[in-house]
Amino acid sequence: MLTILFDGIAYGMLLFILALGLAVTMGLMNFINLAHGAFAMAGGYVTVLLMQRADVPFLVCLPIAFIVPALLGAVLERTLYRPLYNKPHLDQVLFSIGLTFMAVAAVDYFVGSTQQIIQLPEWLRGRTELAAGDWRLGMGHYRLFIIAVCAALTVALQYVLSHTRFGSRLRAAVDDQRVAAGLGINVNVVFLATFAFGSGLAGLGGALGAEVLGLDPTFPLKFMIYFLIVVAVGGTSSITGPLLAALLLGIADVAGKYYIPKLGAFIVYTLMIAILIWRPQGLFSRGAKA
Amino acid sequence: MSGERAQAALLRAARWKPWEPVLWLLAFASPLLLSQYSAIVNEIAIVALFAVSLDLVLGYTGIVSLGHAAFFGFGAYSAALFAKHVMPDPLAGLAVGIVAATVLGAVASLTVQRGSDLTRLMVTLGVALILLELANKLDWLTGGADGLQGVIMGPVLGRFEFDLMGRTAAWYSLSVLLLCFLLVRRFARSPFGVSLEAIRDNRLRAMAVGIPVGSRVAIAYTVAAALAGAAGALLAQTTGFASLDVFEFHRSADVLLILVVGGTGWLYGGVLGAIVFKLMQDFLSAITPQYWTFWLGLFLVVLVLVGRDRLLKPWTWFRRGRAA
Fold it and tell me: How close, in Å, is residue A265 to chain B by CA atoms?
């Protein structure tokens, strides 16, 4: 019971880190980016390949898994994404589906379509049991590690958003792009930095999650819906919304798959549709904006 | 006076162009002339019907849907189950597929009423995924991941047997496509269809001039679902098989691409897009069977960056500066 809750929280935290970049870019640019999972996959594959072929330790891989997708994101934002900000949503959807297809096929071609396995270091493999009986709490060390990393990131991000100059610029640009630009904020640079950072976070999430979520070339398509759920349900106006939505989704998914395996993902999708019909702007958004 | 002129303009747009019957005659002659390609003609007809149905939702009503495969798959499974358990007559099966998809569409149309593009995207995608999950888990009914096998179809109209070459299948699908196309054409050119375009262009104004937006959107969505169901039923009947593949995400994405290649808001867009897409798919997967989605993706990216309304109209490629 508690173990399921624990696993659900770990899963939810992971989803949050993966989807946060998407939430911010969607709130900021009003851009529906279905290719977000591709950046996460890039991070995952960077880690796997470095560990398998170059014997780089896991902890060293994580920053690299952040940096590579971030650079990739920065380059793509500058070259391909920027012309599309003012296009209709249909164009954005098509474009990002196209990118996803390309990423999937390219990884398939270069690495192969098999599921990749991460060799975790020794100290992350164990499992600690607390208490006994019905309320036993079994904590895998790796999940504990995920929760710790993600929680630290969340606190840091919240701090950056609410207490730094960049954070206030970002919030201003999200609230009203034109006014922010009029006040002398270089909105383009804010966009670029945010997009790169969001892609980097996705890459980090992909690296952390390779063990839990599994990593194969169809990763961006398989988890696209999960990222979108987090964003659509959580809303894009704050980071607490997506955080709560991700935790809810993580717990619901793990619990659903554990207790009613027959229905599987069914519960999550039904829940999502119900929530979106009830509150189309997201569960935690501040009133209707559009 | 201006009312008469507007009426004349609408009527002129609704009139048959001289090239249209030629196109249809060519389509119907193709299984005879190129009999080894009948299978692909059949596929094109089915995909074209599917794309025309999406055009009603996307091109005419302006709802971005990523889950149109829900209705396609539902029609396919209904028709296949009907043929397997009740009777093998194709036309009855087609009707069952259409009715089933219509009911589903009517229910699902409640979900696309509210919210932004993102919300609708999610909800339509969610419906398709739920159905995929259902078809996967209810394996006593649908055969699960193995697909529904052993569907044997009777002859069309009790006379024309499905042959191995797929000529009957091609003509059958083409006839259904033509019939549905005529119906949609009538539907889209009617005052009702024009009101849909008004909703697409400006929902608020449409509401202000007294168009009941909610119910119009619901009806358009339901009709589109019925057509998608018909396309799905055709696929299940002509291949004698229904698998989870009919609900997959890539099917919704493909049909979106087809429609966009051909041009939205134009009924022949779906038909032409289907021809281009299927031939391209055939060509590309002959070169790289495994990685053809890469080229498909590249094509999509380039298409959007170039501007999607110009692809099938080469005469506009070099007119960038003048008419933006």
Answer: 7
Q: Which fold has domain B27-316?
A: ABC transporter involved in vitamin B12 uptake, BtuC (1.10.3470)
pLDDT at B316 over 60: no
Closest partner residue to B64 (CB to CB) among A84, A90, A262 is: A90
| Contacts across the A-B interface (CB distance below 8 Å) | 131
Whole-complex ipTM: 0.75
How would residue B226 be classed by pLDDT, with cut points 50, 70 and 90? very high
Q: How confident is the model over B82-92, as a mean pLDDT?
A: 84
Mean pLDDT of B132-143: 80
Sign of CA dihedral B127, B133, B134, B135: positive
* Cβ separation A263–B137 shorter than 8 A: yes
In this model, does residue A131 exceed pLDDT 70? no
**Model confidence over A245-256: pLDDT tens digits?**
888 888 888 888
Looking at residue B99, its pLDDT comes to 93
- Least CB-CB distance to A232: which of B122, B250, B292? B122
Residues whose CB falls within 8 Å of the CB of residue A244, separated by 6 or more in sequence, listed in order: A234, A283, A284
- Please name the residues in contact with B168: beta carbons below 8 A apart, sequence gap of 6 or more: B156, B160, B161, B162
Q: What's the rounded Cα separation, in Å, for the pair B304 and A91?
A: 6
- Written as six digits, the tokens of B259 are 């429609």
Asked whether the CA dihedral B265, B268, B274, B280 is positive or negative, the reply is: negative
The amino acid present at A74, given as its one-letter code, is A
- Find residue A137's DSSP bridge partners: A130
> Is B294–A105 a contact, with Cβ atoms under 8 angstroms apart?
yes
CB B79 within 8 A of CB B96: yes
Backbone phi and psi for residue B143, each to the nearest 5 degrees, phi listed first: 80, 5
Residue B135 CA from chain centroid, whole number: 21
Query: Residue B137 and residue A26: Cβ atoms within 8 Å?
Result: no
- Indicate whether B324 pLDDT > 60: no
pLDDT band at residue B321 under the 50/70/90 scheme:
very low
Distances (CA, A) of B314 to A2, A182, B309, B318, B319: 63, 40, 10, 8, 10
> Is the Cβ pair B110, A277 closer than 8 Å?
yes
Burial of A92 (0-12, 13-18, 19+ CB in 10 A): buried
Give bridge partners of residue A127 from the DSSP assignment. A140
pLDDT tens digit sequence for B261-311? 877 777 888 888 888 888 888 888 787 777 777 888 888 888 787 776 665
Q: What are the structure tokens assigned to A12, written together?
A: 């939810």
Å between B181 CA and nearest CA of chain A: 24
Among A89, A221, A266, beta carbon nearest to B64: A89
Q: Over the stretch A155-202, which tens digit does the pLDDT of each residue have?
A: 888 888 888 888 888 888 877 778 888 888 888 888 888 889 889 988
Gap from A281 CA to chain B (nearest CA, Å): 7
Domains of chain A (ranges plus CATH)? 2-278 (1.10.3470)
What is the rounded distance in angstroms from the CA atom of residue B84 to the CA atom of residue A214? 38
Q: Place A289 in a pLDDT band, splitting at 50, 70 and 90.
A: very low
Per the CB < 8 A criterion, the answer to whether A207 and A46 are in contact is yes
Which residue of chain A comes nearest to B307, CA vs CA? Answer: A91
Comparing C-alpha atoms, which of A235, A252, A249 is closest to residue A287? A235
